[in-house]
Design goal:
The structure is a single chain. Helix content is 68%, strand content 0%. It is an all-alpha fold. The protein has one domain. Helix 1 packs antiparallel against helix 2 and helix 2 packs antiparallel against helix 3. It starts with a helix and ends in a 17-residue tail after the last helix.
């Protein structure tokens, strides 16, 4: 399937896979001047496909949002910040 046909399906994974295949083919046939550019884009697409393939993986933004939500829901003074009080001498 060509990248154009894959894009028409509206399926992101299918489109990325078609782009990966096209870039891999172009990489083999590319002149040395553009090999690094193709390799960079191919690497980015492979990383994105890996993220899609890992179920349950939490993105950095989702992790930061969860931490923020936890801070909001937590008491205003965390236990670690409370100071131990000493009894006064009489």
């Amino acid at each position: 399937m060509s990248a154009a046909e894959a894009a028409k399906t509206g399926d992101r994974r299918t489109t990325l896979e078609a782009m990966r295949d096209k870039l891999a083919q172009d990489f083999d046939d590319a002149p040395p001047a553009v090999v690094a550019q193709i390799a960079g884009r191919l690497s980015a697409i492979l990383a994105e496909l890996d993220e899609m393939a890992t179920p349950g993986k939490v993105s950095t933004l989702d992790e930061l949002d969860k931490r923020r939500q936890d801070r909001i829901a937590a008491p205003t003074i965390p236990e670690s910040a409370k100071r131990a009080t000493r009894q006064r001498r009489s």
